[in-house]
Design a protein that fits this description.
Layout: H1 12-36, H2 45-54, H3 71-86
Length: 87
């Protein structure tokens, strides 16, 4: 927040409250992802990505927590796209 050119000063209370809100948001996201996940022994990136990409309220995180795509799958998608463009 301090690096934003539109903000001249930020109170300590605002910084504390923003930090606490962020902490609570991350806890809630992790808890929900864990509950929705298949593996109850650990929270996986796949669980987080699935929740972020399935919940409309978390749409702002789509670019930050995308579904992982294996390189071989991505290359196959590129080849398929090239083949469809050639036809």
């Amino acid at each position: 927040m301090k690096s934003s050119p539109e903000v001249s000063s930020i109170s300590q209370e605002a910084l504390h409250l923003t930090g606490k809100a962020t902490e609570l948001f991350i806890q809630a996201l992790a808890r929900f992802s864990y509950q929705q996940g298949e593996d109850k022994s650990a929270l996986n990136y796949r669980d987080l990505a699935e929740v972020v990409n399935s919940e409309e309220t978390l749409q702002f995180l789509h670019d930050i927590v995308p579904h992982k795509v294996k390189a071989k799958d991505y290359l196959k998608m590129l080849r398929d796209a090239d083949a469809s463009e050639e036809q």
